[in-house]
Amino acid sequence: MVTLVHNYVFPLKGLPRDQISTVSEGFQFGRVSSCFFTQSRRVYVGVPPVTAIRYRIPTLMAMRDEGAKRGNRSSKQKVPHVLTVAGSDSGAGAGIQADLKACGAIGVYCSTVITAVTAQNTIGVQGVHSVPENFIDEQLRSVLSDMEVDVVKTGMLPSIGVVKVLSHRLKEFPVQALVVDPVMVSTSGDLLAGPSVLDGLREELFPMADIVTPNLKEASTLLGGVKLETVADMRSAAKSIHALGPRTVLVKGGDLPDSLDAVDIFFDGENFHELSASRIKTRNTHGTGCTLASCIAAEVAKGSSILQAVKIAKCFVESALDYSKELVIGTGPQGPFDHLFKLSSNGNSYRRQGFNPSDLFLYAVTDSRMNKKWGRSISDAVKAAIDGGATIIQLREKEAETRDFVDAAKACKEIAHSYGVPLLINDRVDVALAIDADGVHVGQSDMPAHVARRLLGPEKIIGVSCKTPEQAEQAWSDGADYIGCGGAYTTKTKENNPTVGLDGLKTVCLASKLPVVAIGGIGLGNACSVMEIGVSNLKGVAVVSALFDRECIASETRKLHSLLMDAVSRLK
Ligand SMILES: Nc1ncnc2c1ncn2[C@@H]1O[C@H](COP(=O)(O)OP(=O)(O)OP(=O)(O)O)[C@@H](O)[C@H]1O
Ligand SMILES: Cc1ncc(CO)c(N)n1
Ligand SMILES: [Mg+2]
């Protein structure tokens, strides 16, 4: 199942115990009696008869990140990186093109080694032109030797020679994880890989793979043609394929006949997980397999576990299919879908042109108690703040009934957008979705930012409250756009909220790869001191009572705006 590489056993013996972590999910082995090493840079230390301990050898990347954390702020931003080794689909629904779009949508860099060029459309595959093996090898070497790939994802590998070349290069340049989509036949029934490739996959790639993702036909072919017609069949297929060596298996049920749900079976050698999504009624399912595998790779590159990544990927495919179910591209039976969730959107006059960190400059956060105290509606308060120069609005409504909140948020969005000011919703991702707000702001105990990102899509703004460098790092890897850091000073607005002070704020700003807005007890008297900590990614201040617990919101906002302008011009 895995190769014993003795060189790697010896250094392991001296490994301090505190550098070994016990991992339950996906790391239970039937019988492991000694140490071994897989190509994906993991060392398993067997404790017979059933458990295994995992130690992840730090990747070059992790070491570089460590270096960056230790104060080398000039080091470049690390972007999670997936390399796809696959075929081009001229119709751009599947293959390399699907991989690029999927990774792009998830916010992960994707490099491409092209194994074949297909002439393909919504009707079928009209031609395949394989790239010579030595040139595939050259592409692999170019990318792997230079670009610090996190995860490799494979799609169409047209010959056994290509499989061998790839497995050789992966041994020379190990990566964190390998996702193998054993593409054999297109959904239109056209052959994309010869039968000899099967042996190559089984012998060379599966033992190195962290996950293998066959569809029903591929699972059947891998197992010598067994019939797979039910979820129970899929379970036993997953088990048999797992025995061929991969760490985990996902048998995809997109093509399962007569099923109301799209059910996939995940097996990690110990446990089965039945993953279900509603089956979207659409012709646009061309490329779902490639997309799913790329999303898994992208999520793993961002730091998810394999199972977590599969769940997120499945949800991505379901949402994308749902979003593009009416899309009409091509005349054939199998259309592509919209990975970027945008092509078919209409009627939305205000579309954000990417997040602009300078919008954090004067960040107004509403408070229902203060509005009640002064007898004004949320939308009047918002309008006044914008009149005074607020550059972004967050609606923070802890007490309102959901329906009232949705109505108020709709009204506020209209006002904010008429001034070109973005509107965010505190905590309530559902409300943000309901009114198509510009984004959300979540705290450490609210919905995790990576889940919010999945629900809201790549365009929306996501902010996360962070008090420590670790939380800031997490927010960045979760795909947030900015962080809010505080309390800068003590505040009565938010009870039980420890103050980090200006020193804490500075520490977080220095560690954060994202722009920061300071919050907590900030007002006319101290806003300048906050900005004067002088860290370039501190983009502004967020205020609640200094604006909303005042008789005239607009004039207080105006005063704060001009103070901030002065502070910033002094810093230049
Ligand atoms: N109509 C649908 N609605 C929701 N999910 C679907 C639908 N069709 C497929 N899926 C999901 O998409 C993923 C890919 O599954 P599928 O079995 O279609 O792979 P595939 O045949 O390799 O794809 P392709 O060859 O079209 O790229 C699975 O998670 C599956 O459950
Ligand atoms: C190039 C290519 N790769 C994979 C698939 C499987 O969908 C396809 N149709 N075309
Ligand atoms: Mg399919």
Describe it.
The protein folds into three domains: 6-58, no CATH class; 82-323, UDP-N-acetylmuramoyl-L-alanine:D-glutamate ligase, CATH 3.40.1190; 357-571, Aldolase class I (TIM Barrel). 47% of the residues are buried. The strands form three sheets. It has a nine-stranded mixed beta sheet, sandwiched between helices. α14 (429-435) links the parallel β16 and β17 (439-442). It has 20 helices and 21 strands. The termini are far apart. It is elongated and about 75 Å long. The protein is of the alpha/beta class and 572 residues long. It binds adenosine-5'-triphosphate (ATP), 4-amino-5-hydroxymethyl-2-methylpyrimidine (HMH) and magnesium ion (MG).
Just name the CATH architecture of the largest domain. 3-Layer(aba) Sandwich
Radius of gyration: 26 Å
Number of helices: 20
Give the DSSP E fraction (strand runs of 2 or more residues): 15-25%
CATH class identity of the largest domain: Alpha Beta
- Helical proportion? 25-40%
Major sheet characteristics: 9 strands, mixed
Cα end-to-end separation = 61 Å
Named once each, the bound ligands are: adenosine-5'-triphosphate, 4-amino-5-hydroxymethyl-2-methylpyrimidine, magnesium ion
State the CATH topology of the largest domain.
UDP-N-acetylmuramoyl-L-alanine:D-glutamate ligase
Main location: plastid
Organism: Protea cynaroides
Cofactor: Mg(2+)
Domain Thiamine phosphate synthase/TenI: 362-547
